[in-house]
Each structure stands twice: as structure tokens, then as C-alpha cells.
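Hi,

I'm pasting everything inline rather than attaching a file, because the server keeps stripping attachments. The sequence lines come first, and each chain or strand is labelled.
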Amino acid sequence: MIRYSRIGRCQRMGWVYARVLVGLLLTSGVVSVMADTNAAPKTHVVTIENMRFSPDALTVQRGDRVVWINKDLFAHTATAVSKAFDSHNIEPNASWTYVAGKPGEYDYVCALHPTMKARLTVL
Amino acid sequence: MKFVYTATVAALAVAAASAWPQSAAPTDPQIAAIVVTANQVDIDAGKLAKSKSAATDVKEFAQRMITDHSGVNKSATELVHKLHVKPESNATSQSLQQGGEQNIAALKKLTDGAFDRAYIDHEIAYHQSVIEALDKTLIPSAQNAELKALLVKVRPAFVAHLEHAKQLQASLGKTPE
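And the predicted assembly:
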């Protein structure tokens, strides 16, 4: 009796593990399906260096994150001409993140250095 | 207003031209002194313009010069400390200093539109000269790779400042006396 009972416990434990495993597989499967169909937001990097935005033209999906990283020796901004977004001063070695909102073409400049121009397109 | 910037520009022209024969190219400590002085001269002029100009765009430009050239000097100072390079005063850095002082003395005598135009004219000549000095003398002569890299890194800022100053010069030209 004792022996059988032990076996039964082992079998039950086995089922528990199996269920957990299946559960995990299902969960990861669900996640990957969501990623495929719902296009999880991406993160894009724009480097500010040598008085330029690089890349100077970037196309993103609505909801994507755009991170401007300032690698120059002084502050810059990423300021939409339409004022749809404005980082204000991004100090050297600092960054600013914008979650792309309303679709459109946004020309932007460094408000401090008017010769620095670029474009963000939100689809 | 040419006399205003003659001295500064002449100093940089010395640095830029063949006045440095191959054997007499500036050493890294001399380059460090030239860079720090060149930035400081423009910071000082910016401070004067910021307090004296009545035009918003000129004041903003002046603030930009103060901030950007201070940023360059901060990096340059950090680098020379790290490299244990002691900036060494030399004919070019001294005449830059002198030219900067003369520029400020001349600007102080001017007001309003005349001040703005003289300041911006000088900024154009100054940045052109610095770019030329960087290209012809300072960058080719720098021995330390990190010092050379810093000089290369600051060059686009001088180019952008020059463009900005030229835009301002064009807009000031349209302003009636």
C-alpha cells in the first residue's frame, strides 16, 4: 500500500510538471503570436553627433519608441517644427525618448543649432 | 569694421598658414593652449554680446557660443588632464588672447545694430579662421590620437556656428539702421 501510494504521488507530481510545462509552452506561444500579429513597439535610436542627427530620416510605426542619444560635447534638442514634440535640452551623453504618436511627417531641428535638420515619419 | 577682428584673425591665420614649417609644427601642449584660448576668446565675446545686444537672435547666438565653446573647453581640459599634457602658451595662443581682448575693446564702443553687425562679422571671420587652423595646422600636427580625435570632433561645431552666423549676418543686413 505504501509503495503504491508512493508511486501514485510520483505520477501526480509528473502530471503537475506536465501541466506546468504545457502551460509555459502555451504562454510563450501566445506571446509570440501576439508579437507577430500586433507588431510589438520597437525602439529606434537616433545618434546626435558632429552636429548631425543620424539617421537624418527615420520612419517608425505609431507607438514605437525613438531614443535620441547626444554624443556631442554640448546640449542639443530634437524639436518638431510643428511643436508636436520637443525634447528640450539633451545634455552631452544624455538621451531623450519619444513614443511616436499621431501619424505624419515631422520635420525637426535642434532648436539650439538651426543648421541641424532631420525628419521623423510616423506611419 | 575690419579692424575689429584683424588681430584675432591674424593670430589664427598664423596658426593656419605655412608660418608653421614642418619642423616648427605646434606640439601637443601648444595645440592644447591654442584650443583652450580660442574657445575662451569666443566665450568672452559671447558674454559681452549677450549682455549688450538688443536683438533676441543675436543674444541666443551668443548664448550658444558660450555654451558650446564651454563644452569644448571642458572636454579639452579633461583630456589634457588625463593625458598629463600641460598647455603651453605660445605665439599663436598669445596673439589669440590679444586679438580677443582687442575685439572686446572695439565692440564695447559700439551699440545697437552696429554692435550686432560687428560682433557677427567677427564671429564669421573667427570661425572661418579656426576651421582653417584646424584643417591646416592643428589636426595634422596633433601627435596624440585622442587629442587629434577631439579636434576632429569639434570641427563640425565650428562649421555649424559659421553657418548660423552667416544666416544671422544676412538677416541683420536687412534690418534698417
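DSSP finds six helices and no strands in chain B.

If the labels don't parse on your end, tell me and I'll reformat.
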